[in-house]
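Page 37, top half.
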Amino acid sequence: MIFRNETTVSGFLLKWYSGNHELQILHAFLFLVMYLLALTGNFIIITITTLNQHLESPMYFFLKHLSLLDFFFISVTVPQSIENSLMDNDYISYGQCILQVFFFTSLAWAEVAILTVMSYVHYVAICFPLHYEVIMDPRNCKWPVIAVWLNGSISGILYTTVTFSIAFCKDKVIHQFFCDVPQVVKLSCSNDDLQVIEVAAFMTVVTFAYLISIGLSYIHIFSTVLRIPSAEGRSKVFSTCLPHLVVVSFFLSTGVCAYLKPTSDNPSAFDLMLCIFYKVILSTLNPIIYSLRNEAMKQALRNLLLGGEFIDLKKCVVLLVAVQLYTCKFLILEFL
């Protein structure tokens, strides 16, 4: 394994899989497939919510930014993991680790924030339909988005600063496929991680505040929906809200489980699968979840493929395919 001796000074070892080379190739292949699916799905949502004039409501505006977050979220860790597996190299430099922690925590907190904003938009649309246009003026939607990205950036800076201000006394071995904050903190000297624990506790309280806000929104939404006399009307509302509720449930439940459980030097297969689901699979599933029951999204995609805007979409798809082919080519050349 290359760079092993250098990690004691300048980097970390990512030891989350066995030394079996065939399993490493399988891992790289599966991660590459999920990565390309996530890029494609989120790119399609970004494209149709940008080009289709019928999808200019606040909900689709925020959905576009959620897809942007997922697009970047999966790109922070997965390409590096694929390259490490293909190169049979579990080393990651100190600088790369800092960048991973910063971008991962920033995007994760921004995603929690935008999911909370989207739940509020659903609440206003269903519980106060007559005031929706006034409360959710499209001209003011940029301010919640700016707040979401600022929230993520500040959280990322805070987490990264306290995490890498500690002294590392143990072997720099991280039992994950990327620089996970709990695993990095576990390498610290005794009592050096108190600041990290304080920041983590504060952010946990903030997360539960987001969770309570989302829960209250959906309590009001469901109580309003159940009073709708028409079965067709209830079905239409549920088709709009259920995808968001599924995404929120998956994201927060797996995230809470992954970060509140004790960190182990020998994580189980369940721990690793939970981490992969939270950090890789959800970014791939989100576009599917939002598209399956959303007739407006499916109709917009059909219009783009069959209508006059097909040329614009074709150019975007060609660009995306070119990026994906370049990614595959780079990884294959690195492997060879």
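Page 37, bottom half:
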Amino acid sequence: MILPIVAYGDPVLKKKGGEITKDYPKLSELLDNMYETMDGAFGVGLAAPQIGLPIRLFIVDTSPFSEDEELTPEEQDELKGFKRTFINAQITMEEGDEWVFNEGCLSIPDVREDVFRKPNITIVYQDENFETHTEKFSGLIARVIQHEYDHIEGVLFTDKLSALKKRLIKGKLTNISKGKISVDYRMRFPNQKKKR
């Protein structure tokens, strides 16, 4: 089932997510719904806060990036095959010289800005079977993970922009929070009442 994506301005996007256990209600159904929602919105990642749940859960599927012709065939293959569920994740290290990439977010449609991040990360997380992994990632995969990880920490990519950039996009962000935007996927805006 495709779930509505929570728009910029909703307090859930600023909450730090809580850890979950393997008996979290209907987890496998939730994951199926999250993947369906992400795919339906042509995203490469989706975090639980973006569907209104303040928990430490996010998913990543970088295959849409694999069609970038500027990448080497090896990079394309790596991105094509990368689909992962991250539960209770903790980034334990970020290293290397920061690099810039133009980021967007399903919760902040029609806003794209350059964001600086370190290229290499180490992350400890549990998969959908609650098996624990410690892995290193780099490049675009690391960046997508960092972006989604920020969501479970209550951080948006717009929080990483300069004061000037924030002022320049303030009007757009206000319009998004008021629902004055047209998108081709389901969204829930802060001023909308939840359906019972």
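Margin note: The chain has four helices and nine strands.
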